[in-house]
Automatic annotation (TrEMBL):
Signal peptide per UniProt: none
Sorted UniProt keywords: 4Fe-4S, Iron, Iron-sulfur, Metal-binding
UniProt cross-references to Pfam families, sorted A to Z: Molybdop_Fe4S4, Molybdopterin, Molydop_binding
Domain 4Fe-4S Mo/W bis-MGD-type positions: 7-64
The protein, known as: Molybdopterin oxidoreductase family protein
Species annotation: Nocardioides ginsengisoli
Organism lineage: Bacteria, Bacillati, Actinomycetota, Actinomycetes, Propionibacteriales
Keyword Iron among UniProt keywords: yes
Keyword Zinc-finger: no
Alphabetized InterPro entries for the sequence: Asp_de-COase-like_dom_sf, MoPterin_dinucl-bd_dom, Mopterin_OxRdtase, Mopterin_OxRdtase_4Fe-4S_dom, Prok_molybdopt-oxidoreductase
Length: 683
């Protein structure tokens, strides 16, 4: 939908997903939220917004906004209001006590993929410089870390899309693996429509026929957790049919011979047995790919959120490389990031293994460079910490942290095996949560700090294309609310940080630029003025890999991948697959969107096929119970023919879905297996 122009409003960007749609924002009357209008000149969304963006201003006027720090009263156990100094002093006092008893790693920091680049950068600095802890990671680990790991291995660099999203329109074939783009980022779906208007073809691979798959020329519904086997089968047939671009493979890649041998046994009948994709469907897909000059393969959470997520993405990259696509105009491989700053959030130091500029924390040169910018001794910087789930799993345990600072994340809803994670949070000596509203995680906290939301502050985000954009402040924050940058500086100062922590976003961004200079994600040439003048600035080239890949020899790497299958397979007790995902009107854990009255808050539901419904006696709209080895959820059934008969689907925006999900981790990315586990469903 395109909103009306509001010419005197502030040009900024949506608070939610990685498309970071441009919008115009202006204040309404006091307590009445914000007016959202179109910013037609911003190229990514051309004025279009989905209903989440269109209604985003409502939270501003909501009574559910937190406007005062809250501190848990030890006598009553209830949260009470507190002054900022009291809350920050208390946090510092208790952090010092925890570190005195348990050492620097007794304190952990958990960030978010929705935080601005400036906040992500300052969080990393807070952990390493002010707290001296190695224990920092963020919820973006659960977003696209498998694609990041695969991109680094194959191309030597990780940028979600190495080309503008609009390139999709100019391709001959687009293969969407596990993306429901039409619901998760609707304005992006116009690129698919234009592709098809041009005569290009769309292939969608998803266990459900989603609104995205309904647009497809070819929709394949594999068994959840078998995308890797499907990719092996595709490459097997491409090779058998002589459709491999041998010239490209010889000139621009390494490692193909080993991959060619590894896919030799993935003949179509075997692929059908594993994936459920009939041999004629597989051959149809291969025929579409083999005849195309420009193929774009895009992955999203579907193939990535698996214990074999990195291998699965690598297998699809192998397909793209064998076709000779990466680096060719309007062709290649890309990942559709999910969270608003899923890309930038992992480039500036809130990831356990990284320093700003996408530098690895165990690289002595990287440590020396960043330490010099920070004005500290490189020897003082801690090393690599635990990944997001492992960090949470270790809380309160031997060697785990006893105090946790959470910024921009609602792990009680969004973590896998969420009941277990909640128990770990409850075992902490101190839980501090910074949020706009009383999220399910904030409700457990000892201290809750109310922070600004998107239109109340300035800062940069990096969208799914690697385009750095500027969210501009449109209105003053409510009285009593502070920016996360102020909170970070306040804690750092009280913890005796040896260097200052800036709170002005532009100043922080300039420091981030110096810290990232020369790194893999180098922001040193980007400024707020340049972003404004150019309506966003790509870090690196707008279209990457035309002249070579970011590997030492400039060639992309084929990587051999073996199919193992999901960590949990259906059995007599848990006979169906459970998969999870999103609905159009809600975003991530729903902490924001569930509080927007104009958006339908339908609650969790269980989607299942009529054959499965018949078998268990379920009726549409009536409750069913889904159980896994970790928990159960009771919710209304939605009986639809668009899902595989052996699979049930639950959206994850409400408490419950992630009490079911599996915490098996990918060995490379440490991504949990959100997307598939074994389940039983009963009435
Ligand atoms: Fe655009 Fe995503 Fe916001 Fe919707 S949620 S308006 S697609 S940025």
């Amino acid at each position: 939908m395109t909103a009306p122009e509001t010419p005197r409003a502030t040009e900024t960007h949506c608070p939610y997903c990685s498309l970071q749609c441009g919008m115009r924002v202006s204040p309404r009357g006091r307590g009445q939220g914000l007016e959202i209008g179109a910013w037609a000149a911003f190229p990514v969304n051309e004025g279009a917004l989905c209903r989440k963006g269109w209604t985003a201003g409502e939270l501003r006027g909501s009574r559910e906004r937190l406007t005062s720090p809250l501190v848990r009263d030890r006598a009553t156990g209830a949260l009470r209001t507190a002054e900022w100094d009291e809350a920050l002093d208390l946090i510092a006092e208790r952090l010092r006590a925890v570190q005195a008893a348990h050492g620097p790693d007794g304190v952990a920091v958990f960030g978010g993929g929705g935080l601005t680049n400036e906040k992500a950068y300052q969080l990393g600095k807070l952990a390493r410089v002010a707290l001296g802890t190695s224990q920092i990671d963020y919820n973006g680990r659960w977003c696209m870390s498998s694609a990041a790991s695969a991109g680094n291995q194959a191309f030597g660099i990780d940028r979600g899309l190495p080309f503008p999203l609009a390139d999709v329109e100019q391709a001959d074939v687009v293969v969407l693996v596990g993306s429901n783009l039409a619901e998760t980022m609707p304005p992006a779906a116009r690129h698919l429509d234009r592709l098809r208007e041009r005569g290009g073809r769309l292939v969608v691979i998803d266990p459900r026929i989603t609104p995205t798959a309904e647009r497809a020329d070819l929709a394949l519904q594999p068994v959840p957790g078998t995308d890797l086997a499907l990719a092996l089968g595709v490459l097997h047939l491409l090779d058998a049919q002589g459709a491999v671009d041998e010239e490209y493979v010889a000139a621009r890649t390494t490692g193909f011979d080993a991959v060619r041998r590894s896919v030799a046994a993935w003949w179509p009948e075997r692929v059908e047995r594993v994936t459920g994709i009939a041999t004629d469907e597989l051959r149809a897909l291969v025929a579409v790919l083999a005849g195309a000059d420009r193929v774009i393969v895009l992955t999203a959470r579907g193939p990535e959120q698996h214990a074999q997520g990195t291998a699965t993405v690598l297998a699809w990259i192998n397909v793209a490389l064998a076709l000779g696509m990466p680096g060719r105009p309007y062709a290649g491989y890309g990942c559709l990031t999910g969270q608003g700053n899923g890309q930038g959030g992992r480039e500036h130091g809130q990831k356990a293994d990284q320093l700003p500029g996408y530098r690895m924390i165990d690289d002595p040169d990287a440590r020396a460079h960043v330490a010099a910018v920070w004005g500290v001794d490189p020897e003082s910087l801690p090393g690599k910490g635990r990944s997001a789930y492992e960090l949470l799993d270790s809380l309160g345990q031997d060697g785990g942290a006893r105090a946790l600072l959470v910024f921009g994340s609602n792990v009680v809803v969004s973590a896998p095996n969420a009941t277990h994670v909640t128990e770990r949070l409850e075992a902490l000596d101190l839980l501090v949560v910074c949020d706009l509203v009383m999220s399910e995680t904030a409700a457990l906290a000892d201290v809750v700090l109310p922070v600004t939301q998107w239109a109340e502050e300035t800062g940069t985000m990096t969208n799914l294309e690697g385009r750095v954009i500027l969210r501009r402040q449109a209105v003053a924050p409510p009285r009593g609310v502070r920016s996360d940058l102020d909170v970070i500086a306040g804690i750092a100062e009280r913890m005796g940080a040896p260097v200052p922590f800036a709170t002005d976003p532009e100043e922080v961004f300039a420091e981030l630029g110096r810290a990232s200079a020369g790194g893999r994600a180098d922001y040193s040439g980007i400024s707020y003025d340049r972003i404004t003048a150019e309506q966003g600035v790509f870090w690196g080239a707008e279209r990457m890999f035309a002249d070579g890949f970011a590997t030492p020899d400039g060639r992309a790497r084929f990587v051999v991948t073996d199919f193992v299958g999901a960590a949990e397979q259906p059995d007599a007790s848990y006979p169906v697959h459970l998969t999870t995902g999103r609905v159009l009107a809600q975003y991530q854990s729903g902490a924001q969107t569930r509080r927007i009255r104009s958006l339908p808050d339908e609650g969790a539901f269980v989607e299942l096929h009529p054959m499965l419904a018949d078998r268990i006696g379920a009726r549409d709209g009536e409750p069913v119970v889904v159980r896994t080895r970790r928990g159960e959820l009771r919710a209304p059934a939605r009986v639809v023919a668009s899902i595989r008969p052996d699979t049930v689907f639950v959206p994850f925006h409400w408490v419950g879905a992630n009490r079911l999900t599996n915490d098996a981790l990918d060995p490379s990315s440490r991504m949990p297996e959100f997307k598939v586990c074994a389940a039983q469903v009963v009435v």
